[in-house]
Every structure is written in structure tokens, then in C-alpha cells.
Design brief:
The protein is an alpha/beta fold. The chain has 10 helices and 12 strands. A 6-stranded parallel β-sheet has the order 1-12-9-8-6-7. Strands 2, 3, 4 and 5 form a 4-stranded parallel β-sheet that branches. A two-stranded antiparallel sheet has the order 10-11. Strand 10 and strand 11 form a beta hairpin. The structure holds NADP nicotinamide-adenine-dinucleotide phosphate. NADP nicotinamide-adenine-dinucleotide phosphate binds next to helix 10.
Length: about 280
């Protein structure tokens, strides 16, 4: 068997085109143009690259860019004042604080300043609570992107056994909640899980989000299963994931490549959340 590759680039391009249409419709109906405030502290090169691509995608879909760049030595007080200012700015529909922050800053306290209605990364405690209660709210971008990919490839979720490797607040936990809400049976594994392969081999859908390069090999996968690789690792040979692609593509039914799988979906879902947040302010 050779797995069907799940093309995140193409799916993300479709989501971004839908976002551009929604932005244009909103501007026509209400004169509101969605705006994204990215807040970057310091000079981490990878963070600069991520923020630049988010800003570019935001402008390309017709939204306004309200970027704020603060120096590495910014105090917690000044960071929170910047977030508060964006929170009060009617031109800003969504706020994203780029993580990680420099170590002297408290990222939980900073993120807690973002009002739930502008939390387009879906990472505040309020957004996590709304998700766990099944209530309307903005969902974290990478987990939402995984669900969008599964839906696009018509992978059935109701009744499916999904095994997620990783329980972070950013990926594993919210993904588990999203899939539970879609009536999947969800198992979440982590670093203390014993005999990992015994769990993962039961999966109809296996999602690797451990941040361990090549963790998932052929022995972890039931033949024909769908395998989603959230991991991203920079190597001298280029990007790779948590899944050993060469082994697993011979066993899986569907598989996301790295790069070009989950990665492009994250920014697409950020844009989608931003236009959703702008809609909510109009209908209030
Ligand atoms: P994280 O916060 O480090 O969490 C990793 C999780 O994996 C933890 O729950 C950890 O367990 C578990 N884990 C670690 N080693 C394990 C092992 N050997 N067996 C089973 N579970 C193990 O990482 P994250 O932020 O969720 O990110 C995970 C990966 O996704 C990273 O490679 C990251 O770069 C990537 N990522 C990609 C995107 C994207 O857009 N594609 C977005 C976000 C993250 P414990 O809880 O027990 O420590």
C-alpha cells in the first residue's frame, strides 16, 4: 500500500480564498475591514519569519495589518499595555502574541489580557473553556487546521478511534476536544505512556504531535490508517516531522507530508479566525 498524500498547501489555498471572499463581503455589507495585530517581542529570527508570513497572508486576503514590534528588554507592564491598546482598538479584530516570549516575560499572564472575542490564536483560558464546554468561540489554529484537512479528505470522524500523541495546550489537548465534539473516540498519549505502539496501532486516525523527530514508524500504524504529522523539525536536509515518512507512507491509507501538510493550514485558520472575529463584532 502507498498512502494518499494529504495536500495541505492546496487545502490552505482554498481556505484562504474563502477568507478573502468573506473579507470582501463584510467590507461591502458593513464597511468593516478585519484587522490583525501581531505582537512580536525581541529578535528571535524564527519568530520574525513566522510573523512576517502571517502579516503577508493577512494583507493578501484583504485585511489590515496592525503589527507591533517591541524590543527584547520590554517589561511585562509595557507588553500588557500594548495588548490592552490593541484590545481597545476597534480597527483590530484579532490579536496574536508571537510565542515564545523572552524568558523574563510571563506569557500566560500576557495572553490572559487578550479578550476572548479577539483571541484568534484560541489560546486563552477563556477560549479553552469555551472549547471544552462545546460553546461557540475561537479555536486554536493548528488543531482547527487538522480537522479541516480531515474533512476535506472526507475522513469519517464520528465513531472513529483517534489516537493523539501529545497533550500540549497548543495542539494535543484542544485537538482532542475538537474531535470529541465530532463524536470521535479519542485516546491521548504522552511521554509517560507505556507501550506507545500498542495504543497507536488501534487508531483509525493517528495524530503525531510530540515534537520528537521520527517517533512514529511503520510498527506504530495499522495498515490503512490515516496519519497526520503535526511535528516540525529543521534539519540540515530540510524540514521533517514526527513521522518516519519513508516507512509510514508504505503502510498508511492517508498521510500528511512535512513540509506541505499541517503547516500551511495553521496560517489559513488564523486568517479564518480573524474574519470570524470581525463578523462577531458587526453582528453584536
Ligand atoms: P510540546 O508542548 O513540547 O508537547 C509535546 C507533547 O508530546 C507533550 O505532551 C509530551 O508529553 C509528548 N511527548 C513528548 N515525547 C513523547 C514521546 N516520546 N512519546 C509520547 N509523547 C511524547 O509540543 P507542541 O507545542 O504540542 O508541538 C508538537 C510538535 O508540533 C512540535 O514539533 C512543534 O514544532 C509542532 N507544531 C507544529 C505546528 C504547525 O503549524 N504544523 C504548530 C504547532 C506545533 P508530556 O506532556 O508528558 O511532556
Amino acid at each position: 500500500m502507498t498512502a494518499t498524500l494529504m495536500d495541505g498547501k492546496t487545502v490552505a489555498a482554498r481556505v484562504r480564498a474563502d477568507v478573502a471572499t468573506r473579507v470582501a463581503e463584510l467590507a461591502e455589507q458593513s464597511a468593516v475591514r478585519p484587522g490583525l495585530a501581531t505582537i512580536l517581542v525581541g529578535d528571535d529570527p524564527a519568530s520574525h519569519v513566522y510573523v512576517a508570513s502571517k502579516r503577508k497572508a493577512c494583507v493578501a486576503s484583504g485585511m489590515t495589518d496592525h503589527h507591533r514590534h517591541l524590543p527584547a528588554e520590554t517589561t511585562q507592564h509595557d507588553l500588557e499595555a500594548t495588548i490592552d491598546e490593541a484590545a481597545d482598538d476597534p480597527a483590530v479584530s484579532g490579536i496574536l502574541v508571537q510565542l515564545p516570549l523572552p524568558p523574563h516575560l510571563d506569557s500566560d499572564a500576557a495572553i490572559a489580557r487578550i479578550p476572548a472575542g479577539k483571541d484568534v490564536d484560541g489560546l486563552t483560558t477563556v477560549s479553552a473553556g469555551l472549547l471544552s464546554r462545546g460553546q461557540i468561540g475561537l479555536r486554536p489554529c493548528t488543531p482547527a487546521g487538522v480537522v479541516e484537512l480531515l474533512d476535506t479528505y472526507s475522513i469519517p470522524l464520528a465513531g472513529a478511534h483517534v489516537v493523539i500523541v501529545g497533550r500540549s495546550a497548543l495542539v494535543g489537548r484542544p485537538l482532542g476536544q475538537l474531535l470529541l465534539a465530532r463524536d470521535a473516540t479519542v485516546t491521548i498519549c504522552h511521554s509517560k505512556t507505556q507501550r506507545l505502539a500498542e495504543h497507536t496501532r488501534q487508531a483509525d486516525i493517528l495524530i503525531a504531535a510530540a515534537g520528537v523527530r521520527g517517533l512514529i514508524g511503520a510498527e506504530h500504524v495499522r495498515p490503512g490508517a490515516t496519519v497526520i504529522d503535526v511535528g516540525i523539525h529543521r534539519t540540515p536536509e530540510g524540514l521533517c516531522g514526527d513521522v518516519d515518512f519513508d516507512q509510514v507512507h508504505r503502510v498508511a491509507g492517508h498521510l500528511t507530508p512535512v513540509p506541505g501538510g499541517v503547516g500551511p493550514m495553521t496560517i489559513a485558520m488564523l486568517l479564518s479566525n480573524t474574519v470570524t472575529a470581525a463578523h462577531a463584532t458587526v453582528s453584536r
